[in-house]
Please model this.
Amino acid sequence: MSKKLRSEMPQTAGWVDQLRTGQGTEFVNTQLRKAIAGGVGHFWASENGHEVGTRDTRATSAYFLNERGRTERCDPDWMVDALELARVRGIVIERKDFTDPDESREIAKQLRVIMAEAKHA
Model:
């Protein structure tokens, strides 16, 4: 991130630094470059009215840093409704890691099947 973006988006900058430490600087920088160039699904952040990267409208969930600097997941309304439908039908969808995007995508696949079955029932 540029110095200007770092000052405008301090929480995002801190998170990017954590990602670089955990995932490797080269990998994270490559993802940032792809996102800034318009690549979908690599990186997107919004803070203080500023955005960096490319928003993935195909995403099943959004991830954000809460006020304590911890990553949280926010599911879209359709997933919340589908989880409730599954619960009412006695289908258990187990969530283990609320910060794992792969788990979120897998749950979304399961929920889409449940929704499709309900539509044809």
